[in-house]
Every structure is written in structure tokens, then in C-alpha cells.
Amino acid sequence: MTRRTVVVLTAVVAVLGFAIAAYLYNRSVEEQAAVALRATTLVRPHSPVFGPEDAPVTIVEFFDPSCGTCRAFHPIVKQIRRQYPRTVRVVTRYVAFHQGSDQVNRILAAARLQGLLEPVLESVLAAQPDWSAHGGRPLNLSKAWRAAAAAGLDVGRARRDMIKPDVTETLNQDMADAEAAGVDKTPTFFVNGRPLPSFGVDQLFALVDEEVAIARKSSGS
After folding, report:
1. Using CA atoms, how far apart are residues 72 and 70, in angstroms rounded to an integer?
2. Which residues on neighbouring strands pair with residue 89, listed in sequence order?
3. Cα-to-chain-centroid distance, residue 185
4. Whole-angstrom Cα distance, residue 25 to residue 96?
5. Strand pairing partners for 91?
6. Any residues with CB less than 8 A from the CB of 212 and at least 6 apart, and which?
7. Beta strand 188-191 with 88-94: parallel, antiparallel or unpaired?
8. Which H or E run contains 76?
9. How far, in Å, CA of 83 to CA of 79, rounded?
10. R_g (Cα) of the chain, nearest Å
11. Alpha carbon of 172 to those of 93, 96, 105: distances in Å?
């Protein structure tokens, strides 16, 4: 190989190296911009928060109360909260992709106004197989109401609160933000603005663990 050939090959490799580096840099910038954009729409002032308000790691879950997979993931999300009680918070956004979910979301919004969101959510999810329209069963919202009442909900007050304009506005905002974030199924999770690389329990745990490690490193703890 002549010296000229070596020089040419070296130049080609250098150009390719710069091109690859530029591509990776631009991709990183685009990903960071996407995360920043999502962060402005994933959490709203009205969003229910479970866990410390100032937690450095935020899991945003787009949640449909009629969704069987949401019901299955609920104890998993609670396990993550127990594992990182001071580091992780969960923000819930309500969507209605199933029959009757819009009404149950209103029940949950009314429960929050009574300070009973978490117990009512637990009760409604536990009763989901009885009231949801799955497997050929008809929708039975009276059983959802019954489950909410069993958790202490003042049903009369809730029926009045659930149709208030601000409840409608917040639920509409959740649906609009879901569309903006490309959410078309539930549950959909974002961890500090980052979507799961693929759907699954292990993937959720791994992404949370990664963000917790980053948060601890940055805080020096």
C-alpha cells in the first residue's frame, strides 16, 4: 500500500467518523428535545400525583380504568413506589379507550375532590371484572358505583361533581395530551419523559432503576 493510499484511506475514515459522530450527536439532541417537549405536556397541574411531589423520578401512566392490563400493572406500579418511596412519584393521566371508561374516569375525578382517589381507585379496579364490558359481558356502571361507594365515596355529591366544567376540562386535556404523546393503548408509561423501549414489566423496572441511579448520582447520594 502506497503512502498516498494510506493518506486517502485515513481521510475517508476521518470523514466517516465525523459523519457518524454528527449523526449520533443530532440524534441525541433530537431525543433530548423530544423528552423536554413531553415533559411539558405529560404532567399538568391537575394531574393526580402518588408519592412525593419533589421526587426526582416521575412515572407518568396513561391509564384506562376499563383496561385489564392497567389493572394487572397496578400492583407492579405500587411495588415500584414501595421500593423507592422518596425517589419516585407516579402521575396518572386518564384516557377512555374502552366503553364506559369516560364515566368511570369522572367517578375517579369526583373521588379526588372528596380526598378518596386512591381507595376508590383500588375498589373500582378490584371490581373491574364485574362492571367492565369485556369477554361479551355488558357494561354495568352501577357495579362501578357500588365499588366506589364501598370505598367511602359520597355518591350523591360525586354525581354532582363529576359533571362540573372543570372535571370535563381536565379529562379532555388528558385525552389531548395522550394524543400529542402518541398514546394509543394503555397502559403507556413514560419515566422522566422517556418512553419504554418496549412494553413489559422488566422494561418498566429497568427504566425506573436507570433514572433512579442517575438521580442519585447527580445528588451525590
Report:
1. 5
2. 58
3. 11
4. 38
5. 49, 60
6. 57, 84, 87, 88
7. unpaired
8. helix 68-83
9. 6
10. 23
11. 11, 10, 11
Alpha carbon distance 141, 147 (integer Å): 10
Q: At a CB cut-off of 8 Å and minimum separation 6, what does 59 contact?
A: 77, 80, 88, 89, 90, 91, 189, 190, 191, 204, 208
The domain defined by 43-219 folds into Glutaredoxin (3.40.30)
Among 59, 145, 62, 61, residue whose Cα is nearest residue 106: 145
Which residues does residue 195 pair with via DSSP β-bridges, in sequence order?
190
Per-residue pLDDT of the chain (221 residues; tens, 9 = 90+): 565 654 445 544 444 545 554 444 444 444 544 554 455 689 999 999 999 999 999 999 999 999 999 999 999 999 999 999 999 999 999 999 999 999 999 999 999 999 999 999 999 999 999 999 988 889 999 999 999 999 999 999 999 999 999 999 999 999 999 999 999 999 999 999 999 999 999 999 999 999 999 999 988 76
pTM metric for this prediction = 0.82
Using CA atoms, how far apart are residues 211 and 57, in angstroms rounded to an integer? 6
Angle 193-196-197 (CA atoms, 0-180°, nearest 5)?
125
Q: How do the domains of the chain map onto residue ranges?
A: 43-219
Helix, strand or coil, per DSSP, at residue 148? helix
The dihedrals phi and psi of 208, each to the nearest 5 degrees, come to: -65, -45
Q: CB neighbours of 122 closer than 8 A, spacing ≥ 6?
A: 151
